[in-house]
Amino acid sequence: PQWKRRWARAWRPVSWRYKHWKIRTYLEETQTTFAARFGLKRHDIANYERGRADLPSHLVGGLDKLGFNITWLLTGEGRMFRTIPSGAEASDLVLVNRYDVRVGAGHGTFVVREDVVGSVAFRRDWIKERGLNSKNLALVDVIGDSMEKVLREGDSVLVDLSQTEIVSGKAYVIRIGDELLVKYLQHLPGGLLQVFSENSAIYPPFTVSSKELGTEIFIIGRVVASTHMW
What we know:
Elements: H1 2-6, H2 16-27, H3 31-37, H4 42-49, H5 57-65, H6 70-75, H7 87-91, E1 93-104, E2 109-110, E3 116-123, H8 124-129, E4 137-143, E5 156-160, E6 171-176, E7 179-188, E8 192-196, E9 206-209, E10 217-227
Parallel strand pairs: 1-4
Antiparallel strand pairs: 1-3, 2-7, 4-5, 5-10, 6-7, 6-10, 7-8, 8-9
Helix pairs in contact: 3-4
């Protein structure tokens, strides 16, 4: 597909925060309900996700019983599940690739390389309700502060790599030169395109010609969802 040739490359190791978020997303639970499932308090989970505490032993045993790969959780090696879910459970899920790519919400992130580091299970009905196709989706991390208060460094965005036609006011992952950015795009009269940030007081908008699309500026895909790490 066209988007695979446009997909820019950058490096970032898998973070423990993201791995933990992947599990909670799969279980569709908040910190409070997730903690209660394993006989813990919300602050136990919050402290672990913030790096202030070790992984609670109760949680390790509980996740192991649910079929999660503890080696993956602790080291990042292997897959999220010890075994691939089967039967009715599997039919309710679709997998989305997660890339070791940082998307700059600032002045940009230098593009180095691309790696698929795993996949995240999403509910099939959630994907369908939004008119998405899991084969066209990718999860990437955000770095920088230009999109605060909407996106913060460490957040992750779900990008539809097939949506490269610009809809004014929507957020896109774009590549300019050797940098990846997540920005809002807006059509202007005269064949111009405005690129702007949520944090416009620090990162002022700039204008480019639509003629530069596909030569100097590449639309990687549209941001369709995001996760915020507290």
